[in-house]
Write a structure and sequence with these properties.
Strand order of the largest sheet: 8-7-9-14-15
Shape: globular
Largest sheet: 5 strands, antiparallel
Oligomer: single chain
Mean pLDDT: 98
Order of helices and strands: HHEEEEEHHEEEEEEEEEE
Distance between the termini: 27 Å
Radius of gyration: 17 Å
Helix content: 25-40%
């Protein structure tokens, strides 16, 4: 069931979102070759908890063991941080993270370059982030979920890349995952109609190769089936009468 949020609830979520955005900005200055993905996780958790009342949303969610998902190169989402997973020059690292504050959640993902990356990977990051903002621009009252997905899909496919069909964005609020699902592909004017008070985690996951995926034996990490690189960008966005409000800024 879809839960519409009051202005007060949206402001609380925006407080969570500001802490989360600051977390990603902090990590941007810390990530470098030679670190492990567990190092990044430890930094993120400490930074989140340094804000009074804030806790990592992911830790323990459905049994997930860490505070961030750390997905490297061909890993699309849900990578489990590990002391053994060392970041190398030229890698790309998708950090997906959530913050719970005042009883409400915010969700955001950023894909970071590790040192200097190759031109294709740089283009992948740019296109994925551009597709996110194209989707957000369609998150207006009276539009439909299909308008968001179609806008994301067009930017990605015009660049020669693909969006996954197996993973979607979602509603968010007092529960981390709420209805509705938010696909990154689709047709305009299809799907649920967007109303004021709806809050969505919009999160294109884009690969340089084919869109098929597979899940590793850890039952968490989802990778590209063909081994191509993948990027992930995400914002938590409130639908308002004045247009989309990005809460993770």
């Amino acid at each position: 069931m879809i839960q519409l949020k009051s202005k007060r609830e949206i402001e609380i979520m925006a407080q969570a979102g500001r802490i989360l955005a600051a977390t990603h900005e902090y990590l941007r200055g810390q990530i470098r070759p030679g670190m492990s993905t567990m190092d990044v996780d430890v930094l993120a958790e400490a930074f989140i908890r340094s804000h009074d009342g804030a806790i990592p949303s992911f830790k323990g969610l459905y049994g997930f063991p860490n505070s961030i998902c750390a997905s490297v190169n061909e890993e699309i989402v849900h990578g489990i941080p590990s002391k053994k997973k060392i970041l190398n020059e030229g890698d790309i690292l998708a950090v997906d993270c959530g913050v719970k504050f005042g009883g409400y959640h915010a969700d955001q993902a950023v894909t970071h370059p590790v040192g200097k990356i190759d031109p294709l990977s740089q283009r992948l990051l740019e296109v994925t982030e551009a597709s996110l903002y194209a989707g957000i621009a369609e998150a207006t009252v009276g539009n439909h979920l299909g308008d968001i997905g179609a806008a994301i899909q067009k930017v990605v496919e015009d660049a020669g890349f693909n969006v996954t069909r197996d993973l979607v964005g979602h509603g968010i609020g007092a529960a981390f995952h709420e209805d509705p699902q938010v696909p990154n592909f689709g047709k305009p004017k299809r799907g649920h109609k967007l109303m004021p008070g709806l809050v969505l985690a919009i999160e294109p996951m884009v690969m340089t190769g084919k869109h098929q995926t597979k899940t590793l034996k850890d039952r968490w990490t989802v990778i590209t089936a063909d081994g191509s690189r993948s990027a992930h960008f995400e914002h938590t966005v409130a639908i308002t009468a004045d247009g989309p409000q990005i809460l993770t800024k």
